[in-house]
Design goal:
With 379 residues, the chain is of the alpha+beta class. The protein has twelve helices and twelve strands.
């Protein structure tokens, strides 16, 4: 905790820069599709609260930075507030010209596209960043060949030998050693069917990854699955633009599935809930990653962008996924949900989001030993 406070600026500056970029990407997705569909955008804000500084553009949009830099919003003409959830009072009295530029008078498909554009922008950003890395620095590639098997490990008990080439795990094709790591780490204690090629023959083995607690360089503790094998070698392959884009898309998909699976394991209790981190832990990680150079920062930004896109697609009112859920109901019913139903939905959604933020921040305070430090001051 003392180290965190001592290096506060070291953590804070990279955190704010990374977060500002990702929030801008997300909100610009909303903004771009809104303008494309003829919606007047009144405010584009990085941060919440009172304005620090800003400017007007020729289309009448106020671009600004606000005092609380933990997010942002795009407020469109006709919105009651920054969430774009409910229409402003008196919207029915608008003239025809004003209705044509109001978000709430656009067709259902247009409104859904505007809302979905934010998370989509985060995924596109991640794919572009990863593609650039794969073209310039190279894509990490390790043949899925076993170099060594640790004595007494899950791999040895399951019959894996040095020189075996992994072909599939539970039916999922394995192209490189990183695929093995991503799959096994998310399945501690879960029996897995592993097909290997040995002496020109395919052999199916039944292996149960051991449960292992890992502490990363940021001090976070995770329970992961391990086989107890090492790879035979590693290299970075520079990709041509088309292959880089395809591989970046695959990597983004794999990271998304892995994140969702880990979150589901937290929900059902097979993974510890204290792995959830909030802004303090992200700030710490941002500072640490920044010291690793631009490549590490870009990888971190891509992963965070994917997480931001996924979280916003959760079907929780006040998040983009909650809006899309209401639009799905509107498509089924043939008309929007009642004003009161939407209002209560947004209140419940806000309560859920705030509860999650408080829980994640509490985890951060415990992780950084700030709670322990405060207790020491008062006892």
């Amino acid at each position: 905790m003392i180290e965190f406070l001592h290096h506060g600026l070291t953590y804070l500056v990279p955190f704010l820069l990374i977060l500002t970029v990702l929030v801008f990407v997300h909100e610009f997705g909303h903004y771009l599709i809104a303008r494309w569909n003829g919606v007047r955008v009144e405010v584009f804000s990085i941060g919440f609260g009172s304005e620090l500084f800003g400017w007007w553009d020729s289309a009448g949009t106020r671009w600004k930075f606000s005092t609380i830099p933990l997010g942002g919003y795009v407020k469109m003409f006709g919105d009651a507030d920054a969430s774009s959830g409910l229409p402003a009072a008196g919207l029915a009295r608008l003239g025809q010209a004003e209705r044509e530029v109001s978000f709430h008078y656009k067709r259902l498909g247009q409104r859904a596209a505007i809302v979905a554009a934010g998370p989509a922008a985060n995924f596109v950003f991640a794919i572009v960043v990863l593609a650039v890395l794969f073209m310039t620095f190279g894509q990490p590639y390790t043949p899925a060949e076993v170099g060594q098997v640790q004595p007494g490990s899950a791999a040895e008990q399951g019959g894996i030998r040095p020189g075996d080439v992994m072909l599939s795990i539970d039916g999922r094709h394995i192209a490189r050693f990183e695929d093995v790591q991503q799959t096994v780490r998310l399945n501690p204690g879960v029996p897995m069917a592993i097909v290997v090629r040995r002496d020109g023959q395919e052999i199916e083995l039944r292996v149960t990854p051991s449960r292992t607690e890992l502490t990363d360089r940021f001090g976070n503790r995770y329970e992961i699955g391990l086989l107890g094998i090492t790879r035979s070698g590693m290299e970075y392959i520079k990709r041509d633009p088309l292959t880089a884009l395809l591989q970046a898309g695959t990597e983004t998909w794999d990271l998304s599935i892995g994140t969702l699976k880990a979150m589901w394991q937290i929900v059902i209790g097979t993974r510890a809930a204290d792995e959830l981190g909030g802004p303090l832990r992200i700030a710490q990680m941002s500072g640490e990653v920044a010291q690793g150079g631009m490549v590490a920062v870009l990888w971190f930004m891509a992963v965070l962008s994917i997480n931001l896109g996924l979280i916003n697609l959760f079907p929780v009112p006040v998040l983009d996924g909650g809006h899309l859920l209401f639009y799905a109901a509107e498509a089924v019913r043939g008309k929007p949900l009642g004003h009161r139903a939407q209002e209560y939905g947004f209140r419940i959604g806000l309560a859920l989001v705030l509860t999650l933020m408080v829980f994640a921040t509490w985890n951060d305070l415990v992780h950084l030993r700030i709670v322990e430090f405060v207790k020491g001051l008062v006892t």
